[in-house]
Amino acid sequence: MNVLLVDDEKIKRTALCDDLTDAGYSTQVAASAAEGMKLLEAQPFDVVVTDLRMKGMDGTTFLAKIKEKWPNTEVVMITAFATVDNAVAAMKLGAFDYITKPFESAKLVMVLEKIAKIRLLTDENVSLRAELAKVTRHGDIIGNSEAMRDVFEALEIAIASEVPVLLSGETGTGKELFATAIHHLGPRKDQPFIRVSCAALSSQLMESELFGHERGAFTGAVEGKPGRFELADKGTLFLDEIDDVPPPVQVMLLRVLEGSPFERVGGIRSINADVRFISASKLDLQERVAAGAFREDLYYRLSVFPIRLPPLRERREDIPLLVGHFMKLYSGAKEPPQLDETVMGILWDYDWPGNVRELQNVIRRMLLGSGGRSVVTREDVPVEVRLGALRGADVPREPKSFREAVEAGEKELLAKAIDAANGNQSKAAAALDMKLSTFRDKLAKYDIQPRPTNRVELYKNNSEP
User: Fold this and answer.
1) What secondary structure does DSSP assign to 374-418, as a single string?
2) Any idea which architecture 146-310 has in CATH?
3) Contact status, residue 69 vs residue 40, Cβ threshold 8 Å
4) What is the pTM of this model?
5) Which pLDDT tens digit goes with each residue over 382-404?
């Protein structure tokens, strides 16, 4: 710890400095409060030990100035004129402790050791909070796969900036969750977050919804109404499904993105809005640009910082974690039901075309189907998911004949069935409605080696406590 010792008595100052140095503290000295201020300006100190009565600026004034400019620096007061009033005044101003003369250096060392312990605990607490923030920072967004770690890194950059962000990903990948996180964790978190679903609006309605309208602008406009741009002023405007915006509105959006003012429908007054843009698309906007369905200049304005959200099939490692979260969320029980050993294999192998949203709904259906039992079994898994898990993988190459195609499909079904059953041949055969002896013959024919999986363990290890 760095200590600054301030005392106008040279002999006491020097002796105390030597004792603190011997005790392992990096110590510098000053003969007055003014000299001490200069040293504090030049470098940081953890603790200032100062006399109360000094020529010029006294210790109380010195303490107040230290706390005003360096609130994290602790101050220990030393004086031969100890009174209750002095002690109370010093403590009110933020002094850590108050020592009366005469005293042994060991007493001051004990005070410094106490400060060191408290600072260590404070630093550890800050570190733990930072680690916790890494886990919980993104709210409802759950994932620990490599693909999601890359997304989280991009998300941190987006949160810290003000540039337009384009979120792209399939339906159900959580684009709105990411947009919400960018706003609520960013510098505009205390300002409005306004969402517009572009797919739900026609061209005329979209123009009115975005830019507002004046009274009488069209049939039914009985009064003026502010648009989403006005409502989002100083905040964030989230344009969901931006790929559905019709060409006429694309031109208007481009003008606003370029900093031009806008007018309400039927109005003549120019309006400016300070808005941070986040947009989301379920389609590849570059392909839409190539097809002439989306303006290239608008695309580049919207995608200053693009973030691609991976589909669930590209981050299967997150499935156990998501399953654990949804099981606890929707079971309503302190201890959610357990999964039969085959269930996680089925959920893992299914391709999830609806992504996390589909998984969420499937978990709710499974819990309803289980009827409150303590174990969820494969029979509780929707049949389309069970079948999809068996058929999930693609045939590696185009078959040369019908027979080869049949064999390739049969081999794939067998492999998927044994994998979903965690290596249990009886259960795999039952899943395919096949005799066990026939099942084993076919395993031998295609040289399929049964192997257990550890996906249930992944669920147990990753599900929330």
Assistant:
1) SEE-GGGS-HHHHHHHHS-SPPSS--SSHHHHHHHHHHHHHHHHH
2) 3-Layer(aba) Sandwich (3.40)
3) yes
4) 0.57
5) 988 988 887 654 434 444 466 66
